[in-house]
Amino acid sequence: MAHRKLHTFLLALLGVLLLVGQAHGQDTGSVVLAVFKGPVTPVLSSYLDRAISRAEETGAAAVILQLDTPGGSVDITKEIVQRIQASTVPVIVYVAPRGAHAGSAGTFITLAGHAAVMAPGSSIGAASPVGSEGADLPETLRAKATNILVADIKNLAARRGEKAAAWAEKAVSEAAAATADEALALGVVDAIARDVTELLDKLDGKEVSLHGETVKLALRGRTVQEIPLNPLEGLLNAVTNPAIAAILLTIGLNAILFELSNPGGWVAGAIGVVCLLLAFYALGTLNANWTGLGFIALAFVLFVLDIKAPTHGVLTIAGIASFVFGAYLLFNTPELIVPWGTIIFLAAATAGFFAFVIAKALLAQRPQPRTGGEALIGMAATVRQTLDPEGLVFVEGELWRARSEEGAIAAGERVLVTGRDGLLLRVRKTS
């Protein structure tokens, strides 16, 4: 009996130790790291949600979002802010690496973090609203949008002090920006760290508010578990780069027009469709200026017209100008622009493509004569009577009078029909 009681006691003790061990394991859990560079799009929203969910499931000590963004969609930003605020694990936003920027929407996301850190040489701010097509809003709409965003950002910055809240308001109303040192002095961020290891050391022991409760961060020495973008997220994030989006749009339009001008294949058409779908995803996600897209479409129309009705290059020049202007307008916002080098290269490449490839395709489509003497031009013939300079040649089962264009040609020689004057063919020796 005593043995059985001892056995039961040991089992109970083991169970208690296991529970303590599990609790201790959660307390000393790793830190989940999500690294993102690019515009604020649905990709960032889903990626961060996946990272926070992983941290919540595994009992991680914190989530670090390493962020470098020019800004992006207001609606997506609100989703991200709400997900951070709903997290049961502290979320630290880290503007890094050196030279990174948390611009526009990135400012809201940084302020939404339970803690915020910047790398030396990074910057934050310039969160003024722009229109849904990248253009400045009309005065009344701009005032409304600004007031709403000011209220939102002041709510996010309020817990960081009056100076941080005042600066955050200026970031929206006056497009104010700050360096890492300035942001730290204002209380906008909690620390400056060169890397994640230094971040963990500097924030260790810091108290943050998590759902109304004060939580002390225990970060020093934690294992960092990075969650990378999955292949689909990586692809979609890459195409939302303005330069890549412009390239995909140009390739797609070129490929589709080549397919239409030279039907019968499917490779060019398939490539064109895929590129256009990816480009339109990027255009829609980045709130592109559709006026710019219209100018790009006009450029392609002008290129085609110059081929079908030659105007000595006038329409091609107009097409290049329209393309350059359209590409410039396509993402004409302070945060998202197509580099001038990319614009000039795409315009020149497109003009060259139409001048050489499409022109040859259209020329190949012109029907060649199939009947009569004109159909003989370009055919090979055999000399039956010496051409000196005139004689007889045999071509397509008939004898024709022919004149040599390059001296006497003996009987039995092979010649090429180069032209026709009435019933007399002009010929020359084959190479």
List keywords for this structure.
431 residues; alpha/beta; OB fold (Dihydrolipoamide Acetyltransferase, E2P); 6-stranded parallel sheet; 5-stranded mixed beta barrel; elongated; disordered N terminus
Describe the protein in words.
It is a single chain. The protein has 431 residues and is α/β, with parallel strands linked by helices. The protein has 3 domains: 29-230, 2-enoyl-CoA Hydratase, Chain A, domain 1, CATH 3.90.226.10; 241-365; 373-429, OB fold (Dihydrolipoamide Acetyltransferase, E2P). It is 51% helix and 18% strand. The chain has helices spanning 2-27, 42-58, 74-86, 105-112, 139-157, 162-173, 180-186, 196-203, 231-239, 242-261, 267-285, 290-308, 314-330, 340-365; strands at residues 31-37, 62-68, 91-95, 101-103, 115-118, 123-125, 177-179, 191-192, 207-210, 213-216, 224-226, 380-385, 390-395, 398-404, 414-421, 424-429. The protein has a 6-stranded parallel sheet with strand order 8-5-3-2-1-11, sandwiched between helices. A 5-stranded mixed beta barrel has the order 12-13-14-16-15. It is elongated. The relative contact order is 0.08.
